[in-house]
Amino acid sequence: MKRAVVTPGEIVAYAEEYDVRGSAYYAGYKYIACTLCVALYDDKSHTAVVRPVRNPPLPQPGAVVYCQVTGKGKRAYQLKCFAVEGKRGPVDLKYQFTGILPHFLADGRLGIGDYIRARVVSAHGPPLIVSIRGPTYGVILSRCPKCGSTLKRHGMALVCPSCAAEAARKIAVGYYASFF
Ligand SMILES: [Zn+2]
C-alpha cells in the first residue's frame, strides 16, 4: 500500500482512479487535500483514505534524498521524494513527499521521469526544498524519451544504447545507474 504526505490544495487522487474518504474534498473529477494529511492508497479496492497529520517525519536540512522528477515549471522542477540516504544506501521513506527543486539550485538539466540524488535545504514544508548543486548530486537514472531504454553514461553525456538518442543531464558523479 502506497503512503504519501499531501499538502493543503494538493491533488490526492483522480476520481476515476480512487474512491477517496477522509480529509479531502471533491472538485472537478479530483480529490483535493484540505489540510496536511497522510493518504493511504489501496490499489486493489481503488480506495484512498486521507488522515490529517501534525508533524510528519520529514527529512531534515542536509539529509540526502532520492526523488523522481514529476514536472517542470517556470521556476522549479516538481518532485516526488521516496527515499533517504542511509549508511548503506537509499532507504524507502515511510511516507512519500512532494519536493521542489528551484532551477537556480539545479545547475543543469533534468528530464521528467528522471531519478535524482538531492540534498534537502529547507526545514519548512512539505514540499521539501532540495538542491542538486555539487558533483555528487543530480540524475542517477534516466530513460530514453524515444524508446524507454535506460540511458548509458558516456563521460558527462547520456546516450541510448538502443536508438542512439542523446540527452544532456546534470549527472550525479559516482551514482549514475548504481542502484538500479
Ligand atoms: Zn532510445
What does this structure look like?
- The structure is a single chain.
- By secondary structure, the chain is mainly beta.
- The chain folds into 2 domains: 2-52, OB fold (Dihydrolipoamide Acetyltransferase, E2P) (Beta Barrel), CATH 2.40.50.100; 64-168, OB fold (Dihydrolipoamide Acetyltransferase, E2P).
- 0% of the residues lie in helices and 50% in strands.
- It contains no helices and 16 strands.
- The chain has strands at 2-6, 11-14, 19-22, 24-27, 30-33, 37-42, 47-52, 64-72, 76-86, 89-102, 115-120, 128-131, 138-141, 152-154, 157-159, 166-168.
- It has a 5-stranded mixed barrel with strand order 8-9-10-12-11. Strands 1-6-7-3 form a 4-stranded mixed sheet, with no helix packed on it.
- A hairpin with a 7-residue loop joins strand 11 and strand 12 (128-131).
- The protein is globular, with a radius of gyration of 17 Å.
- The protein starts with a strand and ends in a 12-residue tail after the last strand.
- The mean pLDDT is 92.
- Bound molecules: zinc ion.
- Zinc ion (ZN) binds next to loops.
Key features of this structure:
180 residues, OB fold (Dihydrolipoamide Acetyltransferase, E2P), 2 domains, 16 strands, binds zinc ion
